[in-house]
Prior knowledge:
- α1 crosses α3 (108-114).
- A four-stranded antiparallel β-sheet has the order 1-2-3-4.
- β1 (7-15) and β2 form a beta hairpin.
- The protein has two domains: 1-63, no CATH class; 66-116, no CATH class.
- It is α+β, with helices and mostly antiparallel strands.
- Helices cover 32% and strands 29% of the residues.
- The mean pLDDT is 81.
Amino acid sequence: xxxxxxxxxxxxxxxxxxxxxxxxxxxxxxxxxxxxxxxxxxxxxxxxxxxxxxxxxxxxxxxxxxxxxxxxxxxxxxxxxxxxxxxxxxxxxxxxxxxxxxxxxxxxxxxxxxxx
Length: 116
């Protein structure tokens, strides 16, 4: 999402502290559905070196109009979640506001290839 663009969301369901489901639309697009679920991390490497528990976030963006739309959202969410992961490890290094032009040249091409 570019600077100045606004997403409109309506919360459909909130089951704190484990899940949130909302509609999502921006720039006059068809309304899509965004679901976020939190769960304890499973499998090898569970927990961290200091013994604290880890949480896994599953983000699902559905009801997208076509492959091109899905690729753009995929690239944007990948970048956002990468930044969130960096911030979770060290707030001083977390990214905020990466320009869409940078995402479009670095991340979007692989999402477009996968969305075909």
